[in-house]
């Protein structure tokens, strides 16, 4: 499942980037400032283009076989992305005709003889057609992007329990809110029933990955929205304790982890207890001196309290 979640985060990342590039391109097309390089960033035949990467990642993840009862929604997002890619390739082809091919035709016209007149009339017809098709491709790509954005919301909601996705959305909140069309709090409320739940979900994922500072910040956001949740206060004490340990603030670490133990961790927090026990056990090897002895003794006492929690399966 971890591999699937990582793949899903890749898709979220690529969609946020593709959405940003496409919307910027639509605006620059209308203002007359669009460049060929920008079009190449969006659509192309290799991994250098955002929509190509998105399409390939969707195909790889969502066409790998039967996943769960929500496979149909994932397949619909995959289909929407594929359609968006092919429409963007039409945009790319017609833009190439006007931006790259047309100037070459103009240069050739100056050097050509009178007998080439019929050929240039055909070139002119091609360019007129390309201009009309480009406008159609932009309009269709915009409509498809809007619909794909709606499917993106459904895709994320199908995997609303993914801590990795919640983390990525928090870390890229500004870009995510552009795509979602609303603040993250509103999106989390729609998806989880309460915005604080999204922050707590990200925090749990950070904790399990050893990102204690990030977990602490996410938990602070969750508690700011729902201050009464005891399990989040307990998790915040753990995150603070492990962060203090990694910074060498051992007295703070012992005090904060003791708070966590006092708050009576649940059995499903055994892995956290094992990590804390391993860390605290090393504090018994601190240097000599009255303070060192006192700290080592306190560490030993806390390690004993952690032992039964760490031994839980």
Structure description:
By secondary structure, the protein is an all-alpha fold. 81% of the residues lie in helices and 0% in strands. It is built from 14 helices and no strands. The protein has helices at residues 2-31, 36-42, 50-62, 71-111, 117-158, 163-171, 173-180, 184-192, 195-209, 212-225, 230-246, 250-262, 270-281, 290-311. Helix 1 (2-31) packs antiparallel against helix 3, helix 2 runs antiparallel to helix 4 and helix 13 (270-281) runs antiparallel to helix 14. The mean pLDDT is 89.
Pattern of helices and strands: HHHHHHHHHHHHHH
Taken from the alpha-carbon principal axes, the silhouette is: elongated
Low-confidence stretches: none
Rg (CA only): 28 Å
**Total beta strands:** 0
Strand content: under 5%
Derived from helix and strand composition plus strand pairing, the structural class reads mainly alpha
What is the CA–CA distance across the termini? 20 Å
Largest sheet: none
Q: List the quaternary state of the chains.
A: single chain
Helix content: over 70%
Provide mean pLDDT, rounded: 89
Task: Provide a count of the helices.
Answer: 14
Topology:
Blueprint: H1 2-31, H2 36-42, H3 50-62, H4 71-111, H5 117-158, H6 163-171, H7 173-180, H8 184-192, H9 195-209, H10 212-225, H11 230-246, H12 250-262, H13 270-281, H14 290-311
